[in-house]
Specification:
The complex is a heterodimer of chains A (150) and B (585).
Chain A lengths: L2 H15 L5 E5 L5 E7 L10 E7 L10 E5 L29 H13 L10 H11 L16
Antiparallel strand pairs in A: 1-2, 2-3, 3-4
Chain B lengths: L2 H12 L4 H10 L5 H26 L15 H37 L1 H13 L10 H12 L10 H18 L4 H10 L4 H10 L1 H7 L42 H14 L18 H7 L2 H18 L3 E3 L8 E3 L8 E3 L5 E3 L12 H17 L7 E3 L6 E3 L6 E3 L6 E3 L6 H6 L18 H24 L1 H18 L4 H29 L6 H25 L7 H23 L4
Antiparallel strand pairs in B: 1-2, 3-4, 5-6, 7-8
Helix pairs in contact in B: 1-2, 2-3, 3-19, 3-20, 4-6, 5-6, 6-18, 7-8, 7-13, 9-10, 16-18, 17-18, 18-19, 18-20, 19-20
Classes of the chains: A alpha+beta (150), B mainly alpha (585).
């Protein structure tokens, strides 16, 4: 069994045994692609809103980060593009193999919770237009992380 | 003659200079001050000596071995002579080997002519690192270097780069009694400026440590054990007995350490490989790398680190030639900012573009832009043909010197200015000079500016074209040298002067080419420009002379003359650079 499989099996096991609030595992039949729903925390702009996330783990997981995008509708947030791509440092250069699916989910919920105003990133339209041309993975994007507050 | 002029003239004559010489010098340097007149006199005298010697050599062409010491008197010649004698000594050591080789070569010649030719060509192009007794290229290289007053230098290859880096790290580690890893981080932080690091370490050690974000107590001899026996990556339990951890004591099993590090190496992301723990800034040291990586990966790691030595270090630069993995250091700069890698590529040490001295990097950028903008419109100027000034036949120049003879009407003219060649022979070569007076006074400024640009562009391009024929020239010269080798009893060394002369011609052309860029950005009518144009003109003439000597049919090639002219040309390039470097121009 490869490191990826071994690791995903144990992550899935612990996540199903003790699923944190606001998180719901939707589909994991294919071990390499997971669908997970997250709900906005109480007393935040996203309270009671539910969004679906897709995790894809390539062969280098967990040495390399998974590809994480919002499916269907994505929350309106300054770091989330309308095509579902997310600008988050731990999904890119700050990823370390010690991070897990759960830590990514918790980071996303916390990122949404600290948001003060629902708006799209300033370059949303140009980014999405570029993406529509060849549907690149968010892992191919060179992200610049300029704002750690939200 | 103006008042100032006569005062200067009297002063100069009073100093003991020849009145005619003094007057010439004053005229050329623009009558403006004594200092530039004096330097002009110096140049004039130099070129006079050179010419004198040249005629001397021409008169006695059959005495190649006696040449220099008789006429020349200044220091440079002395060093050159001594250099030559050294070279000759070293030659005699190798000569036996060489004659043997050429004999073998001759023997095999009859059988497989073409293959042999290919072989020798490969040899002369081959890497200089090979055993010197095994190829002629090495000998040629030595000769070439010893003619230049600088010591022979080699580009830094992989091994040398690693060695140099290790030496620097060892020095610092030993001097301050610190761990090699810490020394490495400190040096990288100071961009490999050992001296600066030492100074600052002496002034305030702790500040340096703080700035470079290292802890001098990071001694690896101390062994850390992981905090837990469950790996944070694969969640498997592992044996703590031979487990490894950094100072942070994050727990990873050996196999996950290995995976993590080799992934980083595969990505080439080695500047700072950290502990895989989240937000952990502990840097993985060389020992840990050695422990977990296989030999090939570890070599790759070391090479990556060595690369950062070149990239962070302002005194070392990669050779930009495609596929060349060597680096050059500052000591290899030959003239201006030009360097030549041992792969043969010539480039500017500062900007990495083609070698462009004496023009500056900024001038090159601006010139290139200008050429791109303007030459589109004046494409007709780029054509390869010119009409014969006498009969109007279209002539294409596809190599050789600028002394043209029309096939049709036998008119001899200069390719650059299209003037009668006879005028060039006796007077100083004058087609380098842009004379604003010659331009029609009725034309408006913009046209004048364009004409001025075209004047320089034309000459720039002319040399560029000539340089493009470099390969052809080399081939021709090689064919001639081979012929010489076959036809007589001379050894390889005896025809080496041809190759050397070719190198110098090419260097002259490259220098001249960019000297027009430099001149374009000099202010018209300034005294510096007058000086520069004079030196340039002088070099141009010598280049043409040398080029012509090389073009001659083989039976008319006179070694003494070529060798001498090569030396003069070399000296004149040096003179030009000296004047540019000293800020005189």
């Amino acid at each position: 069994m490869s490191l990826r499989e071994k690791r995903l099996m144990s992550e899935l096991k612990s996540l199903t045994q003790k699923t944190p609030d606001l998180i719901k595992i939707v589909k994991t039949e294919n071990l390499m692609t997971w669908l997970i729903e997250i709900t906005g925390a109480e007393k935040t702009l996203y309270e009671d809103e539910t969004y679906t996330l897709q995790f894809r783990f390539d062969t280098e997981y967990p040495l390399k980060p998974p590809e994480v995008v919002f499916l269907q509708e994505s929350p309106v947030h300054p770091h989330i593009y309308s095509n579902g791509h997310i600008c988050l440092d731990i999904l890119d250069e700050s990823w370390t193999p010690a991070l897990t699916v759960e830590s990514v989910l918790l980071s996303l919920i916390s990122m949404m919770s600290s948001c003060k105003k629902k708006e799209r990133p300033p370059d949303d339209s140009s980014y999405v237009r570029a993406w529509k041309k060849n549907k690149f993975s968010p892992k191919k994007t060179k992200w610049f992380f300029h704002d750690n507050k939200v | 003659m103006s008042e100032i002029n006569s005062i200067f003239l009297e002063q100069l004559i009073g100093m003991g200079f020849d009145p005619q010489l003094a007057q010439n010098a004053l005229e050329i340097s623009g009558n403006s001050d004594l200092e530039s007149a004096l330097s002009m006199i110096e140049i004039l005298q130099e070129s006079f000596v050179a010419q004198e010697q040249n005629t001397f050599e021409t008169q006695k062409p059959t005495s190649p071995t006696k040449q220099p010491s008789k006429v020349e008197s200044d220091e440079q010649t002395d060093t050159e002579t001594s250099n030559e004698s050294i070279t000759e000594d070293s030659i005699s050591e190798n000569e036996l080997e060489i004659t043997k080789r050429s004999k073998i070569q001759k023997d095999s010649d009859d059988e497989k002519d073409t293959e042999d030719e290919k072989d020798t060509e490969d040899e002369s192009n081959s890497n200089f690192e090979d055993n010197p007794n095994e190829n002629f290229g090495e000998i040629g290289f030595d000769l070439e270097m010893s003619q230049d007053s600088k010591a022979p230098v080699k580009s830094l290859d992989k091994k040398t780069i690693m060695k140099q880096q290790a030496r620097k790290i060892d020095n610092i580690a030993e001097l301050f009694q610190i761990n090699r890893n810490v020394a490495g981080v400190l040096l990288r932080h100071f961009r490999w400026n050992e001296q600066k690091l030492q100074e600052q370490m002496v002034t305030d050690k702790n500040k340096v440590y703080k700035e470079a974000k290292v802890n001098p107590s990071d001694v690896i001899t101390q062994k850390y054990t992981p905090l837990s026996n469950v790996c944070e990556i694969c969640y498997d339990e592992f044996d703590l007995k031979d487990a490894f951890a950094l100072k942070c004591r994050h727990s990873f099993c050996p196999s996950c350490w290995k995976e993590h590090l080799s992934t980083k190496i595969k990505d080439g992301d080695v500047s700072k490989i950290k502990c895989p723990g989240f937000k952990c800034n502990e840097i993985v040291d060389e020992q840990a790398m050695k422990r977990f990586l296989d030999k090939k990966q570890f070599q790759k790691y070391l090479w990556f680190v060595a690369k950062s030595f070149v990239e962070d270090n302002p005194d070392v630069k990669w050779c930009p030639a495609p596929g060349c993995e060597k680096a050059v250091d500052e000591s290899m700069i030959t003239r201006g900012t030009n360097v030549q890698c041992s792969c043969g590529h010539r480039f500017c040490f500062k900007c990495g573009q083609e070698a462009h001295s004496p023009a500056t990097c900024e001038q090159l950028v601006s010139w290139k832009k200008k050429c791109k903008d303007d030459s589109e419109t004046y494409n007709w100027l780029l054509t390869n043909t010119k009409p014969c000034p006498k009969c109007g036949s279209v002539i294409e120049k596809n190599g050789g010197c600028n002394h043209m003879t029309c096939r049709k009407c036998r008119h001899e003219f200069c390719w650059v200015c299209l003037g009668d060649w006879n005028l060039h022979g006796t007077n100083y070569y004058s087609c380098t000079r842009y004379d604003p007076k010659k331009a029609d006074p009725s034309v408006d400024n913009s046209k004048k500016a364009l004409e001025r640009y075209l004047h320089y562009f034309h000459r720039f391009q002319n040399h560029q074209k000539s340089l493009q024929f470099e390969q052809e020239l080399r081939k021709k010269v090689k064919a001639k040298s081979d012929q010489m080798l076959k036809s007589s009893t001379v050894s390889y060394i005896d025809v080496e002067f041809m190759r050397e002369a070719t190198n110098v011609v090419c260097e002259c052309r490259a220098t001249l080419m960019f000297s027009y860029v430099f001149a374009y950005y000099l202010q018209d009518n300034s005294k510096g420009k007058a000086l520069f144009e004079f030196v340039q003109e002088d070099l141009e003439k010598t280049t043409e002379d040398l080029s012509e000597l090389l073009e001659r049919p083989i039976e008319k090639i006179d070694k003494a003359q070529v060798v001498n002219m090569t030396r003069i040309a070399n000296k004149k390039i040096n003179g030009l650079y000296d004047r540019v470097d000293s800020g005189m121009i």
